[in-house]
Amino acid sequence: MALNFFAFLYISLHFHLSYSSPSRLLIGVHPLDEKYYEAEVIECRDGSKWFSRDRLNDDFCDCGDGTDEPGTSACPTGRFYCKNVGSTPRYLFSSRVNDKICGLKLLVFLKMALVIVLVAFLIFPRRKNRRRN
Q1: For a tag site, which of 6, 62, 112, 121 has the least CB within 10 Å?
Q2: Signal sequence span per UniProt (predicted)?
Q3: How many percent of the chain have pLDDT more than 90?
Q4: Strand partners, 51
């Protein structure tokens, strides 16, 4: 019974953490900068160009400063905002984007904790209370 519960919990946790993310278009954007990306036409921060919202995070560097690619590694000078759940949020160089390290820490920690609890239940099974007459 306990094994089934922990297996269900493990699978649910895996899918919840893997597939529940904010809007795909705003990956790599600091929460205070989200309003900057709400318009249909967005200006590069260096003022060199304008681009439409559908070109945001399209893996092609339109702006020299990386404004249009906050969530990809397409622009060499771009910076990616990592929420770093469970740790300190920070900016990363775009070369480190999609290396699976930023969001992986919490997931690995939670899965390891669940595995440890599951192993503990298997190694040390609860004994039924026996009534003595």
Answers
A1: 112
A2: 1-20
A3: 27
A4: 42
User: Phi-psi bin for 9: left (phi > 0), alpha (psi -120 to 50), beta?
Assistant: alpha
Q: Quote the pTM value.
A: 0.53
Whether residue 98 is contained in a domain is answered as yes
pLDDT digits (tens, 9 = 90+) for 60-79: 999 989 999 988 888 888 88
Count of domains forming the chain: 1
DSSP tag of 41: E
> Is residue 110 a part of any domain in this protein?
yes
How far is it, in rounded angstroms, from Cα 44 to Cα 65?
7
Question: Which 8-state DSSP code applies to residue 132?
Answer: P
Owning domain of residue 67: 24-122
List strand residue ranges (DSSP E) for the chain, in order. Answer: 41-43, 50-52, 79-82, 90-93
Reference 78, options 36, 43, 45; nearest CA is 45
**Greater model confidence, 52 or 23:** 52
